[in-house]
Amino acid sequence: MTIEARIRELGNRHRMLDQTIQRELNHPSVDTLQVKELKQKKLRLKEEITILEQRAH
Questions:
Q1: InterPro entries in the record, alphabetically (predicted)?
Q2: Residue ranges of the domains in the chain?
């Protein structure tokens, strides 16, 4: 898999996590622990994307 393909894949996962977080936040009984874990996963993905983008340039 090329770096660009990996970046796209991670970007898609990042967007999906963002959508999941938004759904959870709009839910009447928000599970704050789950939202926190999802946000941490999203941040790790963003960090990995940034590292790969730096490598690609």
A1: DUF465, DUF465_sf
A2: 3-56
